[in-house]
Design brief:
By secondary structure, the protein is α/β, with parallel strands linked by helices. It has eleven helices and ten strands. The structure holds adenosine-2'-5'-diphosphate.
Length: about 325
């Protein structure tokens, strides 16, 4: 068996579990139950965002688990993100405080810039839209300045590590020239393998975390209904099915193990206790070199991207919109 550490070591020796629990599109009681099941299954890394509007539920479930034993907090690795409406240097602290307050924590382990583009700050509305349905995009914001402010936030001790999400290669290098982000979280799965960005990130020494590692069916279905575009279901691809059968594993486990063997951390999400367990049970089997090669051929590059932000009409006009091609 090849040896892959179950943690990624960050500055100062903190450890980020390589398998985390994603929470996008889950809210309220369903999420609280799922987080409980995830804690039981052994997850300690939890990924949320202000924009998911579920920090209260996640915080509540974590608090119950911590109970009266404050030392348990140290076992957790909690991630949240600055929303597009907070991409204004003078408002970063306010948005961060709101997250910390909702999570009911004293600190977060990792704070990420969620997206490089920005919305106008509209109190009480994380997704401000114009009457025609397009977003209230703020074209005046500056990603570099927001990054410098996030770095200052780290000095308060209430954020242990800082990083970025949904950046392209040029943006990642630009911010690294100011100060290297400690994590890059991007969409990665079999159809959108992001080889060049992963390589660039590795070269810079920045750990990569894959969101939607199973192809985010809920988002794909929503977008398909809106645009008519077809998104193949990763979990039923013949290649993945065949490899799963030969290992006696599920197709989900094959897709996740593929990312792990590429050296990428993952944050799969599920609300089903059985699948929650499956998704963290990836350490006792290994894909062969030829299986890795076969899975690599499934990549569709930019055309495989699901989360292209087309659901936020107007953001493509922002100079820091990260993706070249709008599909
Ligand atoms: P469910 O909550 O019913 O398990 P992603 O992490 O890429 O966004 O994918 C999440 C989606 O994949 C959810 O719809 C989730 O549904 C489903 N899912 C999660 N784990 C598995 C698995 N092991 N096998 C099949 N589907 C899964």
């Amino acid at each position: 068996m090849m040896s892959i550490p179950q943690y990624i070591e960050l500055e100062g020796g903190d450890r980020m579990p390589r398998i985390g629990f994603g929470t996008w599109q889950a809210s309220s009681e369903v999420l609280e139950k799922a987080v409980e099941a995830a804690l039981d299954a052994g997850y300690r890394h939890f990924d949320t965002a202000r924009a998911y509007e579920n920090e209260v539920s996640l915080g509540r479930a974590l608090k119950r688990w911590i109970g009266n034993d404050a030392s348990r907090r140290k076992e957790l690795f909690v991630v949240t993100k600055l929303p597009p409406g907070g991409m204004h240097p003078h408002l970063v602290q306010e948005y961060f405080d709101a997250s910390l307050n909702d999570l009911a924590l004293d600190y977060v382990d990792l704070y990420l810039i969620h997206v490089p583009f920005a919305f106008e700050h509209v109190p009480g509305d994380l997704h401000p839209a114009n009457p025609d349905g397009s977003m209230k995009v703020d074209l005046t914001t500056n990603l570099d300045e927001v990054w410098k402010t996030i770095l200052k936030l780290k000095e308060t001790g209430r954020v242990r590590h800082v990083g970025v999400s949904n950046l392209n290669e040029e943006q990642l290098k630009r911010l690294s020239d100011i100060k290297k982000p400690e994590c890059l979280q991007i969409e990665i799965h079999a159809l959108c393998q992001q080889e060049s960005l992963v390589a660039a990130s590795k070269e810079l020494g920045i750990p990569v975390v894959a969101y939607s590692p199973l192809g985010s069916k809920a988002l794909a279905d929503t977008l398909a209904a809106k645009t008519g575009r077809q998104y193949p279901d990763l979990l039923t691809l013949p290649t993945v099915k065949r490899i799963a059968e030969s290992h006696g594993r599920t197709t989900g486990q094959i897709l996740l193990r593929y990312a792990i063997q590429r050296g990428i951390a993952i944050i799969p999400k599920s609300t089903n206790p059985q699948r929650i367990k499956q998704n963290i049970s990836l350490w006792d089997f290994e894909l062969s070199g030829s299986e890795m090669k076969e899975l690599a051929t499934l990549d569709r590059g930019e055309n495989g991207r699901i989360c292209d932000f087309s659901f936020f009409r107007g953001v493509e006009k922002h100079r820091d919109f990260p993706f070249k091609k709008q599909i």
